[in-house]
Amino acid sequence: MKYDVAIIGSGVGGYPAGSYLAGKGLKVAVIEKHLIGGECTNYGCVPSKALYQFAEAVKTIEKINGVAEYKWSELIEWAKGVVKESREGISYLLESKGVDLYNGVALIESNKRVKIKNSAELKEIEADKLIVATGTDPGDIPVARFDGSGIISNREALYLDDKPESMLIIGGGVVGVELANVFSAFKVDVTIVELLDHILPFTDRDIALAVKTHLSQRGVRIIEKTTVGRLEKASGKYHAELSNGEKLEVDKVLVAVGRKPNTRGIGLENLGVELDSKGFIKVSERMETSTQGVFATGDVVGGPLLAHKAILESIIAGRVISGEEAPRLDYKLVPITIFTGLEVASVGYTEKELQSMGLKYVKYRIPLYYLSSVKIKGGKNAFAKIILDERGGRVLGIHIVAPNASEVVSAYIPLYIGKMNLKDAAQVPYPHLTVSESLRDFAEYILGEPVHLLKK
Amino acid sequence: MKYDVAIIGSGVGGYPAGSYLAGKGLKVAVIEKHLIGGECTNYGCVPSKALYQFAEAVKTIEKINGVAEYKWSELIEWAKGVVKESREGISYLLESKGVDLYNGVALIESNKRVKIKNSAELKEIEADKLIVATGTDPGDIPVARFDGSGIISNREALYLDDKPESMLIIGGGVVGVELANVFSAFKVDVTIVELLDHILPFTDRDIALAVKTHLSQRGVRIIEKTTVGRLEKASGKYHAELSNGEKLEVDKVLVAVGRKPNTRGIGLENLGVELDSKGFIKVSERMETSTQGVFATGDVVGGPLLAHKAILESIIAGRVISGEEAPRLDYKLVPITIFTGLEVASVGYTEKELQSMGLKYVKYRIPLYYLSSVKIKGGKNAFAKIILDERGGRVLGIHIVAPNASEVVSAYIPLYIGKMNLKDAAQVPYPHLTVSESLRDFAEYILGEPVHLLKK
User: A367: domain range?
Assistant: First the structure.
């Protein structure tokens, strides 16, 4: 078969380009070695947010001393059902647009030819253009190698047949804290061990501290500046010895220390596609690799490993390939979202980043507990932070730490991209009893006369 | 005592102006006859959304055949606690800014003089300017007069000592459907009787139908084009006879048919302040009444009886009084929000309104169940609708029917106010696994090549 475009990987880096190009009338093949939808749909965002939504409901019931009774197996079955429905939604979308879906491992033979191998057969297709969207795999570390049952990644953690009593999470990044939040709500005794100074090391300390306080109140133990020195399995338990001398005995060890790009064994070497020092594929703003006609998108090109970043890159590749004007993706505009009850959503720069670049800035910070919506949903340490440039003009960073922050940040984004200014925001009747209405109050606060807040 | 400004009513129509003006250094009195914060804080948004948040958590637990066990008394106590904290937050804010709070009934003697009477004493204050923000009271109807125990308004319904087994709600407007949603989650057998063609009669039929379907699935019975002909109390129950001949026996009857302005008994007649035909105070864009120096804000001036509309009006009055530039409030920009699990949030015009004005328009409508966030939170009949003018240029209306719509609409608002266009929205990496990301997809859909949706 001959295609205009062959896309390797059906995850959020791959299928949007497939959908776009097929919609434009191009003949498109999407090759998937495992499950349609990739990591996000099957082992990431979707099952994790399903468990998250349930976890938050459990915490709400408990807030008034209630008890939520449910079967673990029904919870996992429900999450699986949501994942299946999401996966089938993507298949239906692609098939409706006329995309050919291939199940198998892709081996790139040249920039025009791809072999697809699965247990049943070996096929070969031709394509004018290739998009490599093979994503990343969870990474482990020497002291804790995945064993498929007890030392696990997100992939197993989201589908555990039985609820563990205790869990050690190695790594206090986004995956680590999100799953700590979820499992602690399910009464799993969770300990996070983080190598660096504080959990969520990529962000500012005040944000990390708010999340740490929140998780600690939910019963998560967080040990920072610490590593796991030894890890052994004995009588069905994992025995960990930490660098601070402490010993832990747990049922499961979740390793969430980062991810590694899937660039091996797919024939990239046949094309001479350049990789960066960490093995991610190097691409231009147009998502083109160093090899003409070969594009790469999503996690496999590095940057923030977030679904919405992958989707935008995939759309850009689609537009470039179909010869249309393609937007340039501002990677600082990609919101970093952390779903931890007290959620975090950030666009733009952190203070840490600005300081490391030697840039001066003005910081405004308001507590958000004044909002009745936050009183209801919980979050005494909720806050929002807006960072302006030295002259108080351009918005350099927006950080929201509050329930529902993942939705709320989208209302703040027009400030960051310069489509709205503070005065505009101060005049909008954002709906009451939401967290979004903080935007009007925050704008008033910076401008000088907030009606719901005291001035600095 | 002599003040620059005296404000009658400490609700969302009153206190923001008080906060603003005191912040500007004016001497301000706020007079409250009942509880600081008024209807919204004490009997409206705050307790209602507290119960709502809990109700949604109960439904989430039940989604996987779980059971939420809790004590009704603890639920009500918790809601009372949230209300108390909100109320105290407003008092603290006003007192910190130096506002004098008076507890008592205000009687306006002239546009410069107000008497304040409470059980303990009678005071008199002078003020250069007055703001009347006395709000509204729930209205009843001849067949169902409030009796303080069984035939009730929102005020009693949100604080019931015991959970009723059954409830008749007269009126399928916002209050009626929101409380039907909440009480049905608490296993109260709820029937809504609506006089007009469909519940939520002010909005489009497709929106009302989605909410109706959702509520019906939750067990609420909805009877439209029907009235209550007779209502009698016998042996502790209320017996209702409907215009369709049906008979109902219920524990409680919630009358939610509308609200009446509090313009009597406060001395407005002494000033000659003009009222409209429904008794609401007539005001200019600057929130001035027909009497010089006398302003009115919030529910008492009519229009959409929504907290965020009242807040903006209050800020406008504050700015006008302090001699500053004041924004003009576009009343069509005031989002109408309905918190019913499957929430509704609308800005701009409905189709119904445009049709009645004889205006042509182009309508776009996308189902939102394609979003994994909606699959997780529930809402098979979720959708979004954007209405453009005839030439497809200006956004005339935005209607979101989905979980979290009340937050999501704030991300869509820049489209309505013309600060962002569809192309801008199509290029923003709105975060994944939210409902807000529908904005990018919807923009792409209208522009022609949606990657997550099929084209029309």
Answer: 342-447
